[in-house]
Design goal:
single chain, about 350 residues, mainly alpha, 3 domains, elongated
């Protein structure tokens, strides 16, 4: 990213008169309008760029304060704050260099993007785990803030997440579950990936029960307990009390969302695992037994509720029952009777 002609040793030096033109100001302010850094303090941005400090203090000192102004208006505002004319040069430099880090898909990488994707180790790891690159971010368990970041950066799939991470500047510091997922994917940490993706350690591909369970786990404890009770789970006294506090409207909305989620996952993204579950049900295994892998009876009951419509066989129970079995047979095997839940 170009810096002022007189920049030296990573810091900006400014001449007595501003070097920025009105056209240059318009270009950078329009480009910055869609940046996720638009409300970040200019002082923080300056520090991240290893340039001189932004001299004006205050909560309003963010790019958002300036980018809606014309060149003349921006200069006048800076003058009212006691700043010299050349301060506009520092402002432009900060915005331009921030954009270089903020937009890894910009002009700086367009010429090498295709080659980079071919050598993307994160994409190779996804293929190794048989996780489709086009699996939607919306079906992951990323926190709301991270999902909002992905929306702002137009990251829609897990493959796009991998490409973004591969091209991201080493100077960009990320935290939270963005970094946790990135590290798990880089290290092929299956247990770590299972926190965010419907995978099962020791097994490849996407798993339908885990995919629905991620949506259930993301609910508030009260709504989750209410849905578990509705699905026929046996709740403890504490869980029952928690369920009683759930907002009915929130419970209805979550129920509708999970039914839609299960339908899309079963028919679009987890078809292979759905077929495998059907085979196991046909062989006499109960759905309750298949869901024990989730490790939480309340979540298992919820997942069973939402999977019933997509796993019915000709003689299986109707949707909404507390458990599901394979087609009726004259006798059931010993292990089926032993492990089957009622």
């Amino acid at each position: 990213m170009p810096r002022p002609a007189d920049a030296t040793d990573g810091a900006y030096r400014f001449m007595a008169d501003p070097k920025t033109t009105s056209k240059q100001w318009d270009e950078v302010r329009v480009a910055f309008a869609s940046s996720i850094m638009v409300d970040t303090a200019l002082g923080s941005l300056a520090q991240n760029l290893d340039g001189p400090d932004w001299p004006i203090k205050g909560k309003e000192e963010t790019p958002a304060t300036y980018i809606d102004l014309t060149f003349t208006e921006a200069q006048e505002l800076l003058a009212l704050k006691g700043q010299p004319p050349e301060r506009i040069d520092q402002l432009v430099a900060i915005l331009r260099d921030t954009l270089a880090f903020d937009n890894p898909f910009g002009e700086m990488v367009e010429q090498v993007e295709v080659a980079a994707q071919k050598d993307n180790q994160l994409l190779k790891n996804l293929a190794r785990l048989e996780i489709p690159e086009n699996f939607p971010i919306e079906f992951t368990a990323l926190a709301a803030g991270t999902r909002e970041f992905c929306q702002l950066e137009r990251i829609v799939t897990i493959g796009e997440f991998a490409v973004f991470a591969q091209n991201m500047s080493q100077n960009v510091i990320v935290g939270g579950d963005f970094r946790t997922l990135l590290n798990a994917l880089a290290q092929v940490d299956e247990a770590g990936l299972a926190q965010f993706l419907p995978v099962r350690p020791g097994s490849k591909g996407l798993h339908l029960p885990e995919a629905v369970a991620l949506g259930v786990r993301a609910l508030t404890p009260a709504v989750r307990a209410a849905l578990a009770k509705k699905a026929g789970a046996k709740l403890s006294a504490t869980e029952a009390a928690t369920a009683a506090t759930a907002d009915k409207t929130a419970v209805q909305a979550a129920d509708a969302d999970l039914r839609d989620r299960a339908a899309r996952l079963a028919t679009e993204w987890c078809r292979a695992d759905r077929a495998h579950l059907q085979q196991q049900l046909a062989a006499g295994t109960t759905l309750a037994r298949l869901l024990v892998v989730l490790g939480d009876p309340a979540i298992e009951a919820c997942v069973a509720e939402y999977l019933h419509p997509h796993l019915k066989t000709e003689q299986s129970p109707t949707a909404g029952s507390a458990s599901a079995t394979a087609p009726a047979a004259p006798k059931r095997g010993f292990f089926a009777r032993l492990f089957g839940r009622k």
